[in-house]
Automatic annotation (TrEMBL):
Function: CRISPR (clustered regularly interspaced short palindromic repeat) is an adaptive immune system that provides protection against mobile genetic elements (viruses, transposable elements and conjugative plasmids). CRISPR clusters contain spacers, sequences complementary to antecedent mobile elements, and target invading nucleic acids. CRISPR clusters are transcribed and processed into CRISPR RNA (crRNA).
GO BP term, example: defense response to virus
Protein name per its UniProtKB record: DevR family CRISPR-associated autoregulator
Record key words, sorted: Antiviral defense
Length: 319
């Protein structure tokens, strides 16, 4: 059965609004990161944090479940409504993080299982002790970084909101709000890894004959929904402005390595021109490689469609 999966993805994103995190008054600017190119020269360009990618992978899982494609996969109350508070329950009409044993958190929610959680609560009384508990994420993400070589651009655009409701004291003048937002375009790369073997696993149970708290069929469904969520992430379904700024996404390369034996190293980032040969040369012999794109790398199975990569991974879950 599938135990570990890594992805290296290269996409073109035009007019995206993925990391507008710098706000000053009515101006929202895109995040710019400093980094080094292959010659060690300092560069600066728009980039997107791994937290953003991780969040939208989680959103992909959530929507797949809520839309009925994986009805048997559970979500806690917090993850069901898209809140980062997890594990959570509704108490007295309010959403509240609940401290519970790791086994219970895993059983009640696939997001808590796959994406982990952190419970850090102060003591409620003088004689009480605080609560600190965490589960490490089985899904790991790099930043979305510009590919070295091609240009990356960004520009600031003026938007307006006009209301037909007259403001008090303004007479006949319509209420108008002018604000500025930045948008960027470029060819980007990201790396992700999914530790499939640890989905449903309780770390403290590693010495037991069965460290998993869910049955095999439930594990398979959780693995499938975690894999399927990458499909939506690759399509550009990420960012805070999907209502009016879906990125003009064009996939360029998708490279996947998987193992049915054990963990794998992270692949070399597609932001570098020679990432394919370096990754193949780095990985152990039990790794298997799938690729979609224009190149014909040695030692790699080339697929005609991106969906064929996901079909093979999902098929390995059933074996």
């Amino acid at each position: 059965m599938l135990k570990f999966v890594t992805l290296a993805v290269k996409v073109q994103l035009n007019v995206h609004d993925l990391n507008n995190e710098t706000v000053a008054g009515n101006v929202t600017d895109i995040r710019v990161m400093e980094f080094l190119d292959e010659n060690g020269t300092r560069r600066e360009a728009p980039a997107v944090s791994g937290r953003m990618l991780k969040h939208w992978h989680y959103e992909g899982m959530r929507h797949l479940i809520l839309n009925g494609l994986y009805t048997s996969v559970p979500l806690c109350a917090g993850c069901k409504v898209g809140e980062p508070i997890r594990p959570a329950e509704i108490k007295n009409g309010n959403l509240k993080q609940i401290a519970k044993p790791e086994e219970d958190a895993i059983l009640s929610c696939v997001i808590c299982d796959v994406h982990g959680y952190l419970i850090a609560r102060e003591a409620e009384g003088e004689s009480d002790r605080g609560i600190s508990a965490r589960r490490t994420s089985r899904a790991m993400f790099s930043w979305l970084m510009p590919v070295l070589g091609p240009e990356t651009t960004s520009t600031q655009v003026i938007h307006t909101r006009v209301s037909q409701i007259r403001e008090r004291g303004e007479g006949e003048q319509a209420a108008q709000m002018i604000f500025n937002k930045s948008y960027a375009s470029g060819i980007y790369a990201f790396v992700s890894a999914l530790d499939v073997d640890r989905i449903g696993l309780v770390e403290l149970n590693l010495g037991s004959s069965n460290p998993y708290v869910i049955n095999n069929n439930d594990r398979k469904n959780r693995i499938k929904v975690a894999l399927e969520a990458y499909r939506y992430l690759i399509s550009g379904q990420m960012g805070a402005s999907l209502s009016h700024a879906i990125p003009h996404m064009n996939p360029i390369e998708v490279f996947v390595a998987y193992s049915e034996v054990g963990p794998l190293p992270f692949p070399v980032s597609p932001m570098y021109s020679d990432y394919l040969s370096k990754t193949v040369g780095l990985f152990p012999q039990h790794a298997k490689f799938l690729y979609w794109g224009q190149k014909t790398p040695e030692g790699v199975i080339k697929k005609e469609k991106i969906s064929e990569i996901f079909d093979e991974l999902l098929g390995k879950v059933e074996e």
